[in-house]
Design brief:
The chain is an alpha+beta fold. The chain is built from two helices and twelve strands; from the N terminus they run αβββββββββββαβ.
């Protein structure tokens, strides 16, 4: 009984190893085929930003959509990063080869990434990266920041060092102070 179990386990393990080796070879072969196809193109591969990312200043709780447009021949894969971590990824159309012809997808890709609620966790650097099947990689960066203008407080009350001055008639309880300091990012509050 135990010999049969051992043989069955060994059989499945060998199939897994063979399957893994074949899949790895297939991936390496397809990458080599794509690079060979790229080398044989009549026109040189192109990858450029038509519209790069732009910095955004938003209020707490706002929804922000970042946009970048990329022209690629062949079309590129798109990856969005926030503070260096992948937040979205879209693969490129594959290169199709027939007996005597090769078709590649080319054109303008307009990609958007939406931040549903701007807050301390969602602010920071965002990157739109385009990767061509021919090996070229380009990227564009933007900073999403909280605006200095707090809701309900005139801009003239805000100092250059993110401070806020209140007269004595503006009193808050502890929970409201914590909200002002943590959410709006004020580093110094002075009561006059």
């Amino acid at each position: 009984m135990s010999a049969n179990v051992c043989v069955t386990f060994l059989h499945y393990r060998m199939l897994w190893l063979i399957g893994t080796a074949v899949l790895g070879f297939t991936h390496a072969f397809s990458m080599q085929a794509q690079l060979t196809t790229c080398a044989s193109l009549l026109e040189s591969p192109q990858l450029q930003f038509e519209q790069a990312l732009e910095d955004v200043e938003a209020s707490y709780g706002d929804s922000v959509t970042l946009l970048c447009s990329i022209y690629g021949a062949p079309q590129a894969a798109i990856t969005w990063y926030h503070r260096g971590r992948v937040v979205a990824s879209y693969s490129a159309p594959s290169v199709e080869s027939a007996v005597h012809t090769t078709r590649i997808a080319s054109g303008l890709i307009e990609t958007r990434y939406t931040i549903p609620c701007v807050n301390r966790k969602t602010i920071g650097e965002y990157t739109c990266q385009a990767s061509s099947p021919c090996g070229e990689v380009i990227s564009s960066n933007a900073i999403v920041a909280l605006s200095n203008a707090a809701r309900g407080v005139p801009n003239s009350d805000l100092g250059p060092d993110s401070s806020l001055r209140f007269t004595q008639d503006k009193r808050f309880d502890a929970q409201q102070w914590i909200y002002l300091i943590l959410i709006w990012g004020w580093t110094h509050i002075e009561i006059i």
